[in-house]
Amino acid sequence: MGVVAERLLDPGKRPEVIKDCAALVDSEVASKKGVTGMMIKGGYKAFKTLKPRIVPEAVEHLIDDFVPILDAYYEEFKAQDSPTDFAEWAKQRDEIIADDMLKVTDGKIERSDKGALKKIYKGLRNIAKNQVASAVPGVAAIVVKYVG
Length: 148
Hints:
mainly alpha; globular; 148 residues
């Protein structure tokens, strides 16, 4: 287990990490504009209507799978002795990191028995990569907050 996993999955910090991640999701959704933004906001509203605590619960459910991905990228960042901070470094690799994170959610949704959630997810999946990629610097900033 690397430093990211050690810090973000620490039982004493985990609730705050989940809260920060849920706030990032809310912020990312709120920032979306145009037709795509309307679709994202509509899907998000539908998810939250079905289950109001879906975001923190989803983060709780996904964090154990996402953290090893972030840990590996953080270790790569440290090994490169980059002159930038981790958030900037991750921003330069946002699509690759997004792909790895979406592989987790794709697998989870495929195994889900919740038809309505699957339908909403599949409707939004085509635009998800760009949206997740745009959130990567925020995710990396959360890592920095807890790792130092």
